[in-house]
Specification:
Number of strands: 0
Helix content: over 70%
CATH class: Mainly Alpha
CATH architecture: Up-down Bundle
Oligomer: single chain
CATH superfamily: Nucleotidyltransferases  domain 2
CATH topology: Four Helix Bundle (Hemerythrin (Met), subunit A)
Order of helices and strands: HHHHHH
Distance between the termini: 21 Å
Number of domains: 1
Largest sheet: none
Structural class: mainly alpha
Number of helices: 6
């Protein structure tokens, strides 16, 4: 396995998904926007796992488990945020999920704002020595 190719693959996918978050939320597609928000963070975590382990990341979607496997030292506040964001993996796949129906566009944008900080840190640390 070429680690740098895998890191680039996951990072590029994350960037593409992040663009979809903004497009979806601008159109009022909350469920889709939050699904892609989760996916963008998930892919950055998988890039970190490739870098740390030298292997392929696991085929899981739990952001907290991925954070631990990536051996990232994050704050309790970020772990709580990632835990809440785990639900977004489901709302994109199962549209009848009541969680999606209770999130307003304002709350979705708050998640986007909070996730931007996590995302920026993940991107920065991915390329730190």
């Amino acid at each position: 396995m070429n680690v740098e190719q895998q890191v680039t693959y996951w990072r590029t996918g994350s960037d593409e998904d992040w663009d979809m978050v903004e497009i979806a939320l601008e159109k009022g597609k909350i469920r889709h926007g939050l699904f892609f928000l989760h996916l963008a963070i998930e892919k950055l975590l998988k890039a970190h796992i490739c870098r740390v382990t030298g292997g392929y990341p696991p085929k899981i979607h739990d952001l907290i488990r991925l954070t631990k496997q990536a051996e990232l030292d994050v704050s309790e506040a970020w772990l709580l945020l990632l835990g809440r964001m785990n639900a977004f993996c489901l709302i994109g796949r199962y549209p009848g999920n009541p969680t999606a129906q209770n999130i307003s566009i304002d709350v979705a944008y708050r998640y986007l704002h909070d996730a931007q900080e996590v995302r920026a840190w993940l991107q920065q640390t991915l390329f730190s020595p």
